[in-house]
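ligand=KE4
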Amino acid sequence: MIISNSKQLFERARNVIPGGVNSPARAFKAVGGDPHFISHALGAHMYDVDGNAFIDYIGSWGPMILGHADPSVTKAIKEAAAHSSSFGAPSEVEVLMAEQMCAMVPGLEKVRMVNSGTEACMSAIRLARGFTKKEKIIKFEGCYHGHADSFLIKAGSGALTLGNPDSPGVTSGTAQDTLTASFNDLESVSELLQENKGKVAAIIVEPVAGNMGCVPPKEGFLEGLRSLCDEHRALLIFDEVMTGFRIAKGGAVERFGVRPDLMTYGKVMGAGMPVGAFGGRREVMQMVAPEGPVYQAGTLSGNPVAMSAGLALLRKLDQNPATYDELEVSSAMLEDGLRKLFKKYHTEASLNRVGSMLGVFFCTGSVETYTDVKKTDTSFFSAFFREMLKEGVYLPPSAYEAWFVSSCHNSEIIQNTLDAAEKVLKHFHENHG
Ligand code: KE4
C-alpha cells in the first residue's frame, strides 16, 4: 500500500469527504494548517503518516483514559471479533456490560446501549418527554450534547469552534422546544422554568462543561438544578458522555454526590469503539421499548465487539481504583507546571481542571461561565496550538475543547510537555513581549 503523507491524504479526503474529515472537531479550521493523518497510536503517543510522534492530549476526545492500544482492550476486541462482529440478537456480553456500569454508578438502575453520545442524549430527552408528557427541554449555552436537532441551539464543541452554534437545517418547530440557560447561573434556569410553567420535561447538563473548554460546576449549582427539577417536576439529565468513568469511577454522580434521574454515556465506556448509553431510575427506564411505549432502537446497539472493549476497560478501572489517584497526580503536575510557566512568561491565562480533564483559557480572571469563556483569545490559542504541535504536543485543535490526560501520561511525558510549553511561551515572550 502506498502511504501518502498527510497533505496528499487531506487533498484526496477533501475530494470525497466533506471538509476531508468525518467530524468537524478534527479539522484544523479554527487553528490553521491541515490536520495530521494518524497511522497509529500507543499509550500517550500518536504517530502520523509522516513519521512524526506526538504526545496526545485529545485521547480520541476522551475515550483513551488508559492510553491508546491498551493491551486488555485490544485483546478483548480481537477475541470478540473472531466470533463474528455482530449478531443482531442478544448476547451475554451486553448483560455483563450493563451490570458492570450499574455496579459502578450510584443510581444507574437500568441502561440501554446505543452507538454514540448523540444517540444517548437524543434518546434520553425523548424518554424524558414521554415520561413527563411535557415538551420543552432546558440546555445550557456552550454545552454540547451531540448533533441531534434539539441540541444544536447555542451548542458548544465543534459548533462553537466553527461559529455555528445554531445550525442551519434545524426547524423552528424543533428549536422552540429547546430553551437555553447560562451554565452556573441557577437564576437563569429558574426564570425559564417560571416562564414555561408545567412545560419543561427535563434539564440536560454537562455536570462539568467540557465543550467550552473545561468549566466545573460552581458550589451548589448541580444541587440547585436537582431542587429546581423536583420543584417543577422535570427530570434532571446528566450528560456524562465526557465525565462518565473519567472524573471518578462513578463519574460526576459519584464525584459531586448529586443524583440525576437519567445519565448519558459514551467515550470511555466504549474504549474508543462507537458506543453510547443512557440509563438511570428504573421507574423512568421501564418506559423504553419494548418494556414501555417510548421507542428507541439500533441495529448495532450493544454490539458484542464494542461491548467487549468497553467491558475490558471498565473492569480494569473498577479493579484498579488507584488509577484515578494516579490520574489526579499527573494531571495536577501538568496544571501546576503550566500555571508556573504562564506566570514566568507573563502569559494571561486561566486554567480549570476536574480530575484528568482540563481547560486552558488565554484571558485574565476566572472562567466560570460561557461569558467568561468567550473572553479567551482564540488567535493566541491557535498560535500556541501550532507551536506546541511543532514541539510534538498534540492539543485539541480548538480553544473550546477539554484536554485529556491518560494513565500513560507518566511524569516524564508530562515534563516533556511542560518543556515544550516553556520553549513556546519563552519564544512568544521574547518576540512579542
Ligand atoms: P458523540 O455523538 O460525538 O459520540 O457524542 C456527543 C457528545 C455528547 N455529550 C458530550 C458531553 C460530548 O462531549 C459529546 C461529544 N464531544 C465532542 C468533543 N468535545 C466530540 C468530538 C467530535 O464531535 O468529533
